[in-house]
Write a structure and sequence with these properties.
Protein name: ABC transporter substrate-binding protein
Organism: Saccharopolyspora thermophila
Main location: other
InterPro entries: ABC_transptr_periplasmic_BD, Bact_iron-sidero_bind
Order of helices and strands: HEEEHEHEHEHEHHEEHHEEHHHEHH
Shape: globular
Strand order of the largest sheet: 10-9-8-11-12
Distance between the termini: 55 Å
Number of helices: 14
GO cellular component, one term: outer membrane-bounded periplasmic space
Strand content: 5-15%
Largest sheet: 5 strands, mixed
């Protein structure tokens, strides 16, 4: 069986390579990716750019014109930098072009990207047919085999080695993509702007500093997001601390299910639940109802089917400004410990 699977993988890779060669031979120079204000010029000295990642290094030698975003939220950094990808990967919601409302201004009048729907894995053939000259997969769980196959199509930047899969911080996501598209200084400015928003909110709400917080959902019981998940970093960016032992509970991954015996992790000063039912399932749960965080109304229920919920999951350079002014007042209300205060 293993020999059969290896042979199948080899034939698939050979077919993709042949497709790439055929498309290159049969087409003229591909048109550039769109942008709201026309093509964005590279900054002086930006190329070549060599970027390290989980599977080695990738060198980009010139400004990419046709970028495919395989990472689930990578399109936001591209759009913020003035680069409209030719394709995005569908994740939360069903937005045209997989571009959320927080990024529509950056899209402008450019053509919508093609949306890849990888229910059965990375769509290699569709990606090859788009003739990309750069593939970005930072917020992803790309395997070595996926990376090797994509690299046969175009230079590919995988997730960084320093973080778990689906754990790249929004700052690193933005600056890495900025280097790849020749806009490193602009990327640094974008990051600094959003970090100032966090600092301003911390200054206006000193009660957040040191408060213990957590992000969780009801996927297969209790699922908690760890210290290296972008959603958790929203809380820590506002001044919260995470529960001791959380990293051990998730095993260094972006998140994990916990047993009911470890429900003590949920008993924080404030908790954000990402749910689709307004918390009805939780309210029927005896363990949940016994927690102080529930009795004192220290919970914020974020509807995962809304723009706010999807912006929270994206936790990107574009979605965070959209999210922070909506989420922060609810966290402040939850911290007062008064169940009568709506959060």
């Amino acid at each position: 069986m293993s020999g059969f699977l290896n042979g199948l993988r080899q034939r698939s890779a050979a077919c993709i390579a042949a497709l790439v060669l055929l498309l290159t031979a049969c087409s003229g120079s591909p048109g550039p990716a769109g942008s709201a204000n026309g093509p964005t010029a590279a900054e002086p000295g930006a190329f070549p750019a060599t970027i390290a990642h989980k599977y080695g290094t990738t060198t980009v030698t010139k400004p990419p014109q046709r970028v495919v975003a395989v990472g689930l939220s990578d399109q936001d950094a591209l759009l913020a930098l003035g680069v409209v990808p030719v394709a995005t990967t569908q994740w939360v919601g069903d937005y045209p072009g997989a571009v959320g409302p927080w990024a529509r201004d950056e899209l402008g009048s450019a053509p919508l990207p093609v949306v890849l729907r990888p229910e059965n894995g990375v769509q290699f053939e569709r990606i090859a047919a788009l003739r990309p000259d750069l593939i970005v997969a930072l917020y992803s769980g790309l395997t070595r085999q996926d990376y090797d196959t994509l690299s046969r199509i175009a230079p590919t930047i995988a997730q960084p080695a320093a973080f778990p899969d689906y754990g790249v911080p929004w700052q690193e996501q933005t600056t890495t993509i900025g280097r790849a598209v020749g806009r490193p200084a602009q990327a640094q400015r974008l990051v600094a702007d959003v970090e100032r928003r966090f600092a301003d909110l911390r200054g206006r709400h000193p009660e957040l500093a040191g408060a213990r917080g957590l992000v969780a959902t009801t996927y297969d019981g209790y699922f908690v997001y760890g210290p290296q998940d972008p959603r958790s970093r929203v809380l820590t960016g506002l001044g919260f601390t995470l529960p001791p032992g959380l990293d051990q509970a998730v095993g260094g991954r972006f998140g994990a299910n916990i047993s009911r015996e470890r429900a003590d992790l949920l008993d924080t000063d404030a908790i954000v639940w990402i749910v689709a039912d307004g918390g009805e399932q939780l309210r029927r749960d005896s363990v949940h109802s016994s927690l102080r965080v529930a009795r004192e109304g220290r919970e914020v229920f974020v509807d995962e089917t809304t723009d706010d919920g999807r912006a929270f999951s994206f936790a990107s350079v574009l979605s965070l400004p959209y999210l922070l002014d909506r989420l922060t007042p609810r966290l402040v209300a939850a911290l007062d410990g008064d169940p009568a205060t709506p959060a």
